[in-house]
Amino acid sequence: MKFIIFLLVAISALPAKAQSLLIMNVHERDTTSLNGSWKYIIDPYENGFYNYRYEPFDKQENPSWAGYFMDAKPTNKSDLLEYDWDNSPEIKVPGDWNHQEEKFEYYEGSVWYRKTFSYSKEAAENRVFIHFGAVNYEAHVYLNGEKLGVHKGGFTPFQFEVTNLLEEENSLVLMVNNNRHAVDVPTLNTDWWNYGGITRDVLLFEEKPTFIADYMIQLNPRNPKEITGFIQLNGNNLRSKLTLNIPELDINKRFSINEKGRVDFSIIDSDISYWSPDNPKLYTVKLSYRDEILSDQIGFRTIKTDGGSILLNGNKIYLKGISIHEENPYRIGRAYSKQDAELLLGWAKELGCNYVRLAHYPHNEHMIEMANEMGLLVWEEVPVYWTIQWDNEETYQNAEAQLTAMINRDKNSAATIIWSLANETPPSDARNEFLRKLSETARSIDQTRLLSAAMEIHSKAGQPNIKMVEDKLTDYVDLVSFNQYIGWYDGLPSKTQEISFKIPYDKPVIISEFGAGAKKGFHGDSLTRWTEEYQADTYEKNLEMIKEIPNIAGISPWILVDFRSPRRHLAKIQDGWNRKGLLSNAGEKKQAWYVLQNFYENNW
Ligand code: GCB
């Protein structure tokens, strides 16, 4: 097998394994898309990963040609090789696998992906990286037979440097596994579809040996006339200066870089036009190092709390929101493109929102970019959902890695005002400690945004109609946010009229969820479950109740569009969909849509 022998020789000559990094703003760099058709092999037994003694092929000193990542081919008619990439079927990337072929709909397990591509660098000294927007859930990544690394977490980007592995003709292979595990984040149990696959963009990008890798350019939360932050180079050639240019503000500063390749800066400017939903002003910011220019579109605003109020640029704002899952109902499947973002956020605008809660995990970059352009404030969230393993260090590390990647990716997004640490997690000492540590990590990276978590309410002892939030977690966050389903899981809609709230914190209150299910086109009186009338009545009565809650500062009802959920089995009504959408999965408006739209038009 000549081909295989050649590969093994090539591998042994390779340098150390590629490092995992997070380089900002990849879409604005010199990219080559690896999106499009990829080959795939469904591999429930992970035959391409383990030998018959259940030893991973890639852990062996001489990886066997039987590992699918080797992308080997028989060299003569007698060779035995039990896979054939070239004759394997094709799948589209980005995109979950579940709805590309019927056999994938409920599949949870491993699928191999392969892309071949030619590449030649623009200059011999340049460096090349591979960026994955997201892969759900675990990805083993190989280039030309060499393992680049493993990434866990289905909603955050990851990258590898491949400078020394690239050849003229390349084979990029991934084993993607979307099995759910108790130890993971999220854990076994959620209320959304576990879409598997390479769900976001795959891009190669090329850089000079030393280049601008990371930056944070924000207003000082205590001084709205001060633009402050840092710029970080990657590479060894740190002799030159770095320039920050915002042409519209006449800012053009040259900075010396320190020995770590970093600049910390502060610029005073009194002419800044502040970003807000009414004025989604984005400035072109150009960073240059030597002859390379990296551009970004950045808005400037401050966000803080004052007692029970949220202040955007110093002015009190109510968050008129809606919760959104990252799903395109027309195509059925994970949303990943600019067009998907336009569709979902366009609906939110039409509804009269100035704010969206992107639930329950970090959504794709296009959603964030579009929210900045359209003027929608954003709550971003990590999938610390329901009952994860609070005592498990591995679980904590996983959650922290996802939180860190989310914040790093979107730390220049003016639209993003809230990082949310968790959703409906049952209080305990271990959970409190877990979330306290997460809050500290978030604040150590970013002091310019608010922290939150969707908590729960409970009744006061002996007084079922008095609802309380009493949660140690409120010590670690800036907002008292909670989900409540009075009228749906908790009594009938009229129960809202008997309820009062006691919230013993001087912080803004956000109702991060309320709602009810309805099947579009199903009608009856307002006491008949699943009718549009029931849902509309739940909205009307909840909104009346919510208006009276002291310190109420915003809401994000559950949810914009019906979404796929494997927990929803009611035949003829749910059929695998959570029906709490204000829009059906065909994009049709239910009655409750108009109730909320009317509320946003006439209140706050
Ligand atoms: C919740 C969860 C959300 C569910 C929703 C429901 O409280 O946060 O993920 O989908 O309830 O519809 O039950």
UniProtKB/TrEMBL annotation:
Domain Glycosyl hydrolases family 2 sugar binding per the UniProt entry, residue ranges: 65-206
Name of protein: Beta-glucuronidase
UniProt family annotation: Belongs to the glycosyl hydrolase 2 family.
Gene Ontology molecular function terms on file: hydrolase activity, hydrolyzing O-glycosyl compounds
Domain Glycoside hydrolase family 2 catalytic: 306-575
Keywords: Glycosidase, Hydrolase, Signal
Claim: Signal is one of the keywords in the record: yes
Annotated Gene3D superfamilies: Galactose-binding domain-like, Glycosidases, Immunoglobulins
Pfam families (UniProt xref): Glyco_hydro_2_C, Glyco_hydro_2_N
Annotated signal sequence range: 1-18
GO annotation terms (biological process): carbohydrate metabolic process
